[in-house]
Amino acid sequence: MIKKIKTGTLGGSPVEASGTPALFSFQLNDGYYSFDEAECRENGKALASAYRDAQPFPHIVMEKFLDTELLRTVANAFPATGGKRYFNRSQERLKYQFHANESSSGLVRNLFSELNGRAFLGFLEEMTGIQGLISDPYLDGGGLHLTQAGGYLGVHADFNLHGPMHVERRLNLLVYLNDDWHSEYGGALELWDRQMKGCAKKVEPLLGRAVVFSTNLDSFHGHPDPLSCPPQRDRRSMATYYYTALQDSAPLLHVRSTTFQVRPGSGDKVDWEVKVDHLINDWVPPRLQRIARRLNPFR
User: Fold this and answer.
1) Which domains are seen in the chain, by residue range?
2) Rounded to the nearest 5°, which phi and psi values hold at 3?
């Protein structure tokens, strides 16, 4: 028996039946939820112009991406943070990152599997015009993200090559999981212009809202101001990244890790450790790079 989740239902139970339908439906078949490939491709075609014409770089903001109750379930299935490592330096504070398999929820694993599956890749290809997209079973840098009160993520461009798979990063998907989130809490995703002169767009991280954007060396984004939510609250999201096979020009690519930027007139600190590592990548022979990184004075 197949059930569809689209118009505000989860497992066949009515939820917000009078509200706006979710953009994507989930089909429940023998205990497993899946996207409908035809619907995914149809949605991709419908959003293609808006995505490709968006500024400061191609992106789309989707409201009610999936059923609200489903995403509430995901938000409540995050692993506990106690004793877990987190990012805590000048460029990023109090940010936890969990692989989907660290959650005990079958629904969480199911959803990540589908976001990395053929049907959803079809949506992304139709919308972006990028063919041959490759999903990431490792969830390198992706998964479940949680930032505690006072935490932030500086404006940055993402790493461009996936080490284990040796493929080029092309797209980010962020799905927000923050119910009853007030604007004064902060945490809005900021998209900055390519010259880092100013923020071109802000997207509040509200439950059910999702963002897809192209990743280039100048696709600058982040939520750079400390969260001012109550201590018992935090900012939660899902993240998956998508890649394409390297082309013949791949040897000409400069390998880049996450590259943080300094906002004009701010107190942001320059990430000299990464800048020096990038110089080593570009100019030091490969056999000597490991030694050179050990000598990086900012490490």
Assistant:
1) 37-254 (2.60.120.620)
2) -115, 145
